[in-house]
Amino acid sequence: MTSNDQLADLLEEFADLLDATGVEYKPRAYRRAAENVRAYPESVADLAARDDEDALDDIEGVGEAIASKLIEYVETGEIAELDELRAELPVDMAGLTSVEGVGPKTVGKLYEALGITTLDELEAAAEAGEIQEVKGFGAKTEQNILDNVDFARQAGERELLGDAYPQGQRVREYLQSVDGVVECELAGSLRRWRATIGDVDVLVASDAPEDVVDAFTNWDDADVHIEAGTSKASVRSDGVRVDLRVVVPEEFGSALQYFTGSKDHNVALRNRALDRDLKMNEYGVFDVSSEAEPASGRPTESGSGDDQRAGERIAGDTEESMYDALDLPWIPPELREDRGEIEAAENGDLPDLLGLADVRGDLHTHTVWSDGNDSVADMVAGAAAFGHEYVAITDHATGPGMVGGVGVSDDELLDQLEEVRDVAAEVEIEVFTGVEANVDAEGGISVRDEVLEELDLVVASPHVALDGDGTERLVTAAKHPEVNVIGHPTGRYLNRRPGLDVDVERLASVAADHGTALEVNANPARLDLGDEAIRAAIDAGATIAIDTDAHRPANFELLRYGVHTARRGWAEPSDVLNTWSTADVRGFIS
DNA sequence: GCCGTTTTCGGCCCGACTGTTTTCAGTCG
Fold first, then answer.
1. In this structure, are A476 and A575 located in the same domain?
2. Containing structural domain, residue A127
């Protein structure tokens, strides 16, 4: 069945092709429809497949014409009109528009003038100096294309949080050292700690914006200079696009709120403001009740550039003031996805979110006994140095998914037990003996029960057959009396494979009944379970374990990614096994 | 092509930046 994403992609291609052929307004309608189809909570293809003309009526921006095209696609696998457009403009639209500065209209013009259809042809034309000969193009545009075409070829993927976060910290530290910078914060999806990041957004408060832009473009780590004006600039650093915006200190709070997003959260807040005769934007919250024509619901066209700041400004110097003006408490960035957080805030029901300092231990680590880099003693010392009160040693067991002799056999596991106990006797922190066993395709565990019984803690993780529905298999594992934690339940690898489909509600309710925790693997390539699954799991009553899967002591630092992902899943400290005391954890796993 | 307390026509979000212009179009967020 066709996913909403696929249908939305088709509508967007439609929009781009219309745009490239110079059609007005229709492209916007198709893009809006695409956006709403993508975000629609039910399967649009299912609705379209119904023998009901009005089935698609509820989707904003989808009218008669677009609805009939969606139905045509679901029934026949094609849209005749789209095929005609493709024939008229046979270009690799997605590839070509992935070049920074090249949009649909440019694609249309270059096809018209030079017959360019692919990235390779675009590059060849630029190298041959043909592009600057086209009317409306010049030498700079041609050079920009040459500069960006390679990046466009390799890009197309969002950056992992674990790569973007250190990048963000570096730029923030640098800007904080710049003269005239009053405040500096990361914004955008990085501040919301999304698992993947489009670009790094950084916001500065300063009365000398041009000096800040200047310092930013001269940053040592800025490899490519994309653009720079008087109040904003963009560079590429280590392959990541970094966008700077500078505002005056009085507007820092409103700008931070605006640029943190998400878009959906901000739209919902803006509507709430309108209900109160207020206007909310990146410059503040304004009382427009005394403005002319209040009944029209929109400000008058004065023609001045200050329309955005019309009315009496009642908030904006801090983020708190923005929310307060709408009678809401401040909402943590991780929750700002329009997933019910505004309603919860209104009712005083916002979760008391877990913090990094609440976590007391790590229940999933590896040593040289399997594929880790360090000894049991070094990993335990690393956990203690990180500040943990307890740590579990859970090396890979041999079995399905373990290749190249990585996992330990049952006999080796028993040998390792003695070493772990010896180390444990020498240190202050609590050390749990354990294993990361493999869950086979049927839900079986790769270590004999008698051996599992000897261990304090058993993490059971899927490492093979990581596609299709994994619910029953994981349910079987979660019911196993010796299994305490289901490790990285879906087996996903961000940007590489989606992992198992899991009915989280069902898995979580079984896990809750059998005293099994579900892992949030903090490795930034995994972040598994992900935010929405975490929330579903907690709602179904399951306990969460946030573990780093550390293969060396430095990996204990990855905990932050797991904690913030759990915050995105509305997790409170009590939901998380490894915020509990040593005695309580012992109680849970015994 | 969509939409409506402006309701069957006439609008459609908008500001910053760049590169090409000689007053503006295209891209981006």
1. yes
2. 4-155
C-beta within 7 A of nucleic chain B, residues 128-147 of A = 132, 135-142, 144
Does any strand B atom come closer than 7 Å to the Cβ of A586? no
Same domain, A326 and A365: no
Q: Which of residues 354-413 of A touch strand B (CB under 7 A)?
A: none
CA to C1' distance (Å), from A341 to B13:
25
Taking the CA of residue A31 as centre, how many other CA atoms within 13 Å lie in the half-sphere pointing to its CB? 11
- A230 and A98 share one domain: no
User: Is residue A550 domain-shared with residue A412, that is, in the same domain?
Assistant: yes
Give phi and psi for A111, each to the nearest 5.
-70, -45
Q: Are residues A189 and A122 in the same domain?
A: no
- Entry pTM: 0.85
- Whether residues A393 and A535 share a domain: the answer is yes
Count the alpha carbons within 13 Å of A459 in the hemisphere toward its beta carbon.
32
Closest nt by CA–C1' to A143: B19
Assess whether A553 and A406 both reside in one domain. yes
Can you point out the beta strands (E) in A65-218? 159-160, 183-187, 196-197, 200-205
Q: pLDDT digits over A337-383, tens only? A: 989 999 999 999 999 999 999 999 999 999 999 999 999 999 999 99
Nearest nucleotide to the CA of A135, by C1', is B20
